[in-house]
Amino acid sequence: MQTHYFIGINIPEAAAKELAEARGQWNLQSHKKYTRPQDMHITLLFIGSAEETQLQEAAQALEEISQAPFDLAINGVKTFGNPQTPRIIYAAIADSAPLMELQEKVREITRKFNLSSDQKPFVPHITLAAKWAGGSEMEEAPVFKMPSISFRVEEFSLFRIEPQNMRKYVPQATYRLQEGV
Predict the structure, then answer these.
(1) Among residues 125, 153, 158, 169, which one is catalytic?
(2) DSSP state at residue 82
(3) Which pLDDT tens digit goes with each residue over 89-145?
(4) Phi-psi map region of 55: left, alpha, beta (phi>0 left; psi -120 to 50 alpha)
(5) Does the model's pTM come out above 0.90?
(6) 4 in active site
(7) pLDDT (tens digit, 9 = 90+) per residue, 64-82?
(8) Burial of 165 per CB tally in 10 Å (0-12, 13-18, 19+)
(9) Which of 18, 22, 39, 41 is catalytic?
(10) Which CATH class is domain 4-176?
(11) Which of 40, 142, 125, 128 has the alpha carbon at shortest distance from 85?
(12) What average pLDDT does the chain have?
């Protein structure tokens, strides 16, 4: 099996714990996978498999990204797929120009190295539950309560996906955002 990679923002520990606690209050039993707090992230760009030299060159080029840290806020809970049997339940991210700017910079750099395998529109989100387990459908429009959660983004990382490990997303390189840029 080939190793896959993505570029993303790791969710700070306190915010991730709050998200997991909110999800815990929903008593969900509808999905096969529930994202552990240490694996919560926002994917900026899914790469998939890549040649080592391409990956190393892209990792070095990502160091050139110049952007100041910024704040993000959770803007409710949404789903991907059929609302009654959703593939994914996620924490939606409030509109953020700095986040969109960072994602576009990442996309542009990876495109230079033919690593832009993901052509879907960018929908900033934090996956909370995945893979519908079957059984009875959810209500017409389930309401998932989510406290007001915000956090500061000070870095992003190139992650290796290790599905068999306790920590499924392992940073390979981390890039600090800098004040005054």
Answers:
(1) 125
(2) -
(3) 999 999 999 999 999 999 999 999 888 666 788 999 999 999 988 777 776 556 688
(4) alpha
(5) yes
(6) no
(7) 999 999 999 999 999 998 8
(8) exposed
(9) 41
(10) alpha beta
(11) 142
(12) 91
Q: For 56-95, give one letter per residue: b (16+ CB within 10 A) or e.
A: eebbeebeebebeeeebebbebebeeeeeebebbbbbbee
- Every domain of the chain and the residues it spans: 4-176
Copy the structure tokens of residue 178: 């800098």
**Dist. CA 168–CA 86, nearest whole Å:** 22
Query: 144: how many CB neighbours lie within 10 A of its CB?
Result: 18
Tokens linked to 152: 């500061």
Give 7's strand partners.
45, 158
Q: What is the mean pLDDT of residues 158-181?
A: 90
Burial of 37 (0-12, 13-18, 19+ CB in 10 A): middle
The tokens of 8 are what? 């993303």
